[in-house]
Amino acid sequence: MSIDVKKMEGIVAGERVHILLAFISIAFFGILVLENVYLPVDMLVFHTVSLILTLIIYFIILHLSVLSARLEHPSPIKTLLCALPLTLVIGIFKVSNHFMKVFFGLDSCTDLYCLFPALFSLLISLGIFLASYAIITSIQLKMFYKASVKRIAFVFLYVFILVIFSSIIYTILYFSFKAEPTDEPLLETLESRVDACTTITHEHYHDSCLSQLIKKNPRQHWICERMNVEWKKVICYVDAGTYSKDPTLCENIDKDDYVNQCYQRIATNLQ
């Protein structure tokens, strides 16, 4: 019984690709962790489970891409049909999650620009699909997963450019739709919104709700006094000072250490 050497080489090389894709999955998992490090301790369990599920979905996407590329007649259409629905699930989950927060009063931001972080997650998900297929097809050009270091480096450069380009698009869209701060807001409406925020029992969402209001109404710095957490109150005054370009708002903070920190952050943000 003869051994098909080319087939065996392909299987070994294919396992190496699996390892490479696993490292890529871990890298994206690390990015997701960094996005959530600001969360309070009581929310870490929920988001840790969410991150693990996201990692599993990412790995399934990459695995299906490998299987599609190893077919006798691989094509982008076949890989797209396998992997694209799973990438869409991640983005749809992010968008619906934001709507659920608004519905239950955990987030006061209902403007279009507030959805861009969720839509950007969808864009990143699609980018992962494109990057995974690009890696597989690029490696495949060298006879079944045989590729030079130069070609692999080119693929990683492609992924890097994709992420940078996506970030630029996200930034342009965010500031294009972002509402300008109101100089003379309707205080009755604003006060009712502040009161609505203070009815939220969860400390994290209580202060996050108020921080959204101060960004739209930076001259109404009395909102910061309604914050529960001291360091978030500092950030609130920093946002108020940055958006209104008035560093004297730092004088409203009681502790000297926080006052100096407030001045320093505003000076950095105004550069």
Structure description:
The protein is an all-alpha fold and 271 residues long. The chain has 2 domains: 5-177, no CATH class; 187-270. The chain is 73% helix and 0% strand. The chain has 9 helices and no strands. The longest helix is centred in the first third of the chain and has 31 residues, at 5-35. The radius of gyration is 24 Å and the shape is globular.
Shape: globular
Uncertain parts: 1-12, 33-44, 140-145, 178-187
Class computed from helices, strands and strand pairing: mainly alpha
Radius of gyration, in Å, reads: 24 Å
Strand share of the residues?
under 5%
| Average pLDDT for all residues | 59
Query: How many domain units?
Result: 2
Distance between the termini: 73 Å
**Largest beta sheet, briefly?**
none
Q: So how many helices?
A: 9
Number of strands: 0
Which properties best describe this structure?
single chain; mainly alpha; 73% helix; 0% strand; disordered N terminus
SSE layout:
Elements: H1 5-35, H2 41-69, H3 76-103, H4 116-140, H5 149-177, H6 187-198, H7 203-216, H8 230-244, H9 256-270
Helix pairs in contact: 1-2, 2-3, 2-4, 3-4, 4-5, 6-7, 7-8, 8-9
